[in-house]
């Protein structure tokens, strides 16, 4: 153990790796306080994580320990409790607010641990509670929250008005991919390079899997996502300097030959704590004010970072532990093995196979494939939202409990009945056809809903609307779509087809 009597030991979790977690000016420990990090094998035994995710987390933790040097004790233990006992015994420890209900309950139950306020977000828990309580606890709206954050943090503002006169530039940020293009003509995203620490991580993971101690899903290709603060800053600079300008217009578009489009790929760095959301949003704003990027791109990125990410974090805590069990649509079907095993060859739907293959090889895909292909497919088939949430948590390099519970339970699967979003996010195949190049070579036709050529998304969409007609026809944003059921001459045939499927 590091011997230093000048301060209480401060414990860093594996997603608290940036400088803002040890900065005393921002509520962190004293500069001379000894630090503790615990690598608990039990985390990887509890769930079958994507191999690339396990690699990234361990690489980031071990890189951070190497940076901190003699100030930190890095303990490899079977459990967190064992690691604490080995490192400090019963001595007092501080730790910043963890990022899951389970971890928060664990540290709060330890008499020797004092929990400090959360770091890594723009809005505090108390600030969000004051805002949310003023809007009623039943239904919160992201748009209201986003405008409030913009105002209180002076992001993309001109006095008391939004830059450009409008809060929301979504209508400019929903373009389909350029006609005939196979990729966007933009510089490639930052790619990290592995080092000796990565080789050590890979050897450990290989040994654990070989010994039958843990199981993984997906492939362990060379690490491409940042594992250090230096790498994360380089990725942020490259995005803002070379990719942000085209991000806005095509943020919802998908191309088979361009899996990253103009997306930042910074979510894993933010969720590991390597980047702070304020610096990301401020750099994007500075690029716009310098005339380097259009407003719609800067606003689209700020909306993701200062709006949606903050909103998801706070909804997770505000709605409490029971929120994850929400199942308003009463969906209970189990996930098929081919889906959980990330087996793209098990489906003939080109879009679904392509996205599953990307997740299998990288542990990442951007938000539209997640929401409108993976999530929409699960919703249409009535899969258990708790199982879907767990799958997203395990299968993505940026997946954490706080990230996936609101995103999947609330937005993707509409399992909360509308507490977080105003409508289910699902569509027929026409949307996928408009926003991607998947449908052309697919054996299914997006306009066909019955028969051998029937698109599973088109048939699934109408089947979902019929199954929940009573609920959806009372939703102002869904009622017109539900009325479309009455115009389907082949509805009975479609329902029988989907029942057999």
UniProtKB/TrEMBL annotation:
It comes from the Bacteria. GO terms for molecular function: lyase activity. Keywords: Lyase. SUPFAM superfamilies: Cryptochrome/photolyase FAD-binding domain. Gene3D superfamilies: 1.25.40.80, Deoxyribodipyrimidine photolyase-related, DNA Cyclobutane Dipyrimidine Photolyase, subunit A, domain 3, HUPs. Coiled coil: none annotated. Pfam families: DPRP. This is Deoxyribodipyrimidine photo-lyase. It comes from Streptomyces fulvorobeus.
């Amino acid at each position: 153990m590091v011997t230093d009597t000048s301060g209480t030991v401060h414990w860093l979790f594996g997603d608290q790796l940036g400088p803002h977690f040890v900065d005393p000016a921002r509520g962190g420990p004293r500069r001379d306080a000894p630090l503790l990090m615990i690598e608990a094998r039990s985390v990887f035994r509890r769930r079958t994580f994507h191999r690339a995710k396990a690699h990234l987390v361990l690489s980031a933790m071990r890189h951070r320990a190497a940076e901190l040097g003699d100030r930190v004790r890095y303990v490899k233990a079977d459990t967190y409790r064992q690691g604490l006992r080995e490192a400090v015994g019963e001595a007092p420890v501080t730790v910043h607010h963890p990022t899951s209900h389970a971890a928060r309950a664990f540290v709060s139950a330890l008499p020797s641990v004092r929990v400090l306020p959360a770091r890594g977000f723009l809005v505090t828990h108390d600030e969000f509670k004051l805002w949310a309580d003023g809007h009623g606890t039943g239904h919160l709206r992201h748009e209201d929250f986003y405008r409030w954050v913009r105002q209180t943090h002076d992001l993309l503002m001109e006095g008391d008005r939004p830059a450009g006169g409008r809060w929301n530039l979504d209508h400019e940020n929903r373009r389909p991919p350029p006609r005939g293009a196979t990729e966007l003509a933009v510089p490639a995203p930052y790619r990290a390079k592995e080092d000796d620490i990565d080789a050590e991580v890979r050897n450990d993971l290989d040994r654990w899997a070989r010994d039958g101690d843990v199981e993984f899903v997906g492939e362990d290709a060379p690490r491409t996502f940042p594992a250090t603060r230096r790498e994360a800053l380089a990725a942020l600079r490259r995005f803002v300097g070379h990719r942000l300008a085209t991000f806005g217009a095509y943020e919802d578009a998908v191309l088979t030959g361009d899996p990253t489009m103009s997306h930042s790929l910074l979510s894993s760095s933010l969720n590991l704590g390597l980047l702070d959301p304020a610096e990301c949003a401020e750099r994007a704003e500075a690029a716009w004010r310098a005339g380097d990027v259009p407003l719609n791109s800067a606003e689209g990125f700020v909306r993701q970072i200062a709006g949606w990410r903050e909103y998801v974090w706070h909804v997770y805590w505000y709605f409490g532990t029971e929120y994850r069990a929400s199942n308003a649509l009463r969906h209970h079907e189990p996930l098929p093995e081919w889906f959980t095993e990330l087996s793209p060859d098990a489906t003939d739907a080109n879009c679904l196979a392509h996205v599953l293959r990307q997740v299998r090889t990288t542990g990442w895909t951007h938000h539209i494939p997640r929401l409108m292909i993976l999530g929409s497919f699960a919703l249409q088939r009535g899969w258990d939202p708790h199982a879907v949430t767990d799958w997203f948590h395990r299968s993505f390099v940026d997946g954490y409990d706080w990230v996936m519970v609101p995103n999947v339970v609330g937005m993707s699967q509409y399992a909360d009945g509308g507490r977080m979003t105003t409508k289910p996010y699902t569509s027929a195949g026409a949307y996928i056809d408009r926003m991607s190049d998947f449908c052309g070579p697919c054996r299914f036709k997006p306009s066909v809903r019955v028969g051998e050529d029937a698109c599973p998304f088109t048939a699934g969409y109408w089947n979902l609307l019929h199954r929940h007609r009573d609920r959806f026809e009372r939703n102002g944003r869904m009622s017109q779509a539900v009325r479309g059921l009455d115009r389907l001459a082949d509805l009975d045939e479609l329902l029988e087809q989907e029942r057999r499927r």
